[in-house]
Amino acid sequence: MEPLRPGEPAQVGPYPLVGRLGTGPLGEQYAGRGPDGRPVTVTLVMPQLAGDPVFRAVFRRDVAAARRVGGPFVLPVDADTESPAPWLATGVPEAPTLASAVAGSGPLPPHVLRDLAVALAGAMGAVLASGGALFGLEPAHVVLTPEGPRLAAYGVTGPARGPHAAPGGIRTEADAVYTLGALLHFAATGRPPAPAAGGWQQGPPPPVPVPDPVLGQAIAECLAPRAAGRPSLRGLVERLGGVGPGGVPAAGLIPRQRWWRTGAGQAAALVAVLALVTGVALATDGSGDDFGGKPAAQASAPGLPDLNGLLPSDKGPGADGSSTDGGDSGSDSGSSDGSSSGSGSSGGSDLPGDEPSADPIAAAAVGDCFTNSGTAASPQLAATYCGPQTFKAVAVLRGTTDTHQCDSVAEDDWNVSYPSRGVLLCLSYQYDHGTAYHAKNGTCVYGSSASSDWDQLDCQTGAFTVIARYTGTLSSDRCKSLRNDDWSEHFGVTGRTDLDVTLCLSMVYPDDAGHAVQNQCMKFTGTYAKPVMHAVSCAKANVIVTGRTSKYNDKKFCGNDAWTTWKPNDYPGLAYTMCYRQR
């Protein structure tokens, strides 16, 4: 930490600043003190980002999502999203992240890993219980504070449902458990887990080679390819929440007083997971059961709450085992409305002789992921972990092979049927460069360039509205005839041209001046310094457009006429100067 430089603020919001930490991706970072005296990291957003309406909207969304997540396992977030100089306060100054701790000192010892597992299980349970999802969670988002491991929720949480929910991310408990296993694998070995092999593993997965065999087996089970083969967050808390072997962890990494090893701390973790499971049950069970009439939790022998009867069984509905399997395939036909439509079936091999306990197709569940070593017409699916360029089951329909039944399933990209099993898999391709791949007509997306990642976001000035979505093509030809077509973005899938996507996009301008044409009638409101233009019928108009150029601030183009101008930060070619005069 460095002393504050001349001209730097002595206080940001309610936080007095005590030193300078450096420059982060959002702006200058400072060490501050909260009203209660606790240290915090305060980030003052750089002016060029503060003036970008797209960033400002994303900043509001991410702060709101992080604030919705509570509990002792998540770093609290404070921010001013509306100030001309917005700021963010979270974290602990100079506390190491999981990424920096492993990079600096190597893999963590087993007793610290157990503490980490309990804290992360509680944090992930809190996120899902709040109705949120996790996006892009990495070791850098886990902070090893003096009070214990904490999740830095800002920037990695968002709504799981609703109009502003982005596709992908960690939305289910099974996905959360897999990600927890990947983080623990990194913490235990210094490297991320390798992708699952092509075949389906028979029997329990081999343990991760760490000195604590119970911990190693638990990590391996978290990384099971099929969702049904993974343990629950509740089970992990009970299994690893007790004091592990090894005694007291090394000084400076985690304190001697580890509250999450106390009965109260473990109970807090279980409460977070209980809230998650109860919330999922309420959201998915239409029977109207009164959970309030169930017996109260009792204390079990180890000191943890006895939640038997309150939570579902940890055992998944399927069994372990695997095969690489083929089926009949149907894919979308290139419709422009953003929905998938089955294109019929083509021949594929079916393996009716497999035992159900060794068959990932027969036991498939929503959330399972697969790779395809065959073709679109002759698929050869193998179960794998959920990651980029895999296919996630978004619906599993039994008793039918009619691929058109997947047409109404959200984010369905490809359909594979197995006639002898009577199973139809509706699969969603997991695109690896942003969430805009599955954007629908009328939603908004943004990327800083044609080659950057593109994501869905709330519609606001400077973003792009999807006006058409075409599958099976990387051509912009069909976009050119659309009204207000400003940009086209292409999402190619190697070896699968049927999964290629082109989005036809229209810039969200501040008002109707952005797409105005000469001699168009407009309703002028506001002031001449800040005019607002609305396209109306000429009977209701008070100004008429006399010209428009794609150059920014080109008042000479307008001569003696009044003018208004605007430009987006990343797309100067979509700027405009519009000229107008009174009618």
* Largest beta-sheet characterization: 7 strands, antiparallel
- Spatial order of the strands forming the largest sheet: 13-16-15-17-19-18-14
Q: In terms of per-residue confidence, which ranges show pLDDT below 50 for 5 or more consecutive residues?
A: 196-203, 242-266, 275-324, 331-357
Amount of helix? 10-25%
Note the overall shape. flat
Number of helices: 9
| Intertermini distance | 62 Å
Cα radius of gyration in angstroms:
27 Å
Give the DSSP E fraction (strand runs of 2 or more residues). Answer: 15-25%
- Mean pLDDT across the residues is 78
Structural class: alpha+beta
Explain this structure.
By secondary structure, the protein is of the alpha+beta class. The chain contains nine helices and 29 strands. It has helices at residues 47-50, 53-67, 98-105, 110-129, 173-189, 213-222, 233-240, 263-284, 555-558, and strands at 11-12, 15-23, 27-33, 39-45, 78-80, 87-90, 132-134, 142-145, 148-151, 157-159, 298-299, 305-306, 325-326, 328-331, 369-372, 380-384, 391-398, 414-418, 423-429, 444-446, 455-457, 464-471, 487-491, 501-507, 521-526, 531-535, 543-549, 562-566, 576-582. A seven-stranded antiparallel sheet has the order 13-16-15-17-19-18-14, with no helix packed on it. Strands 1-2-3-4-6-5 form a six-stranded antiparallel sheet. Strands 21-20-22-24-23 form a five-stranded antiparallel sheet, with helices on one face. A hairpin with a 3-residue loop joins strand 2 and strand 3 (27-33). Helix 5 packs across helix 6. The N and C termini lie far apart (62 Å).
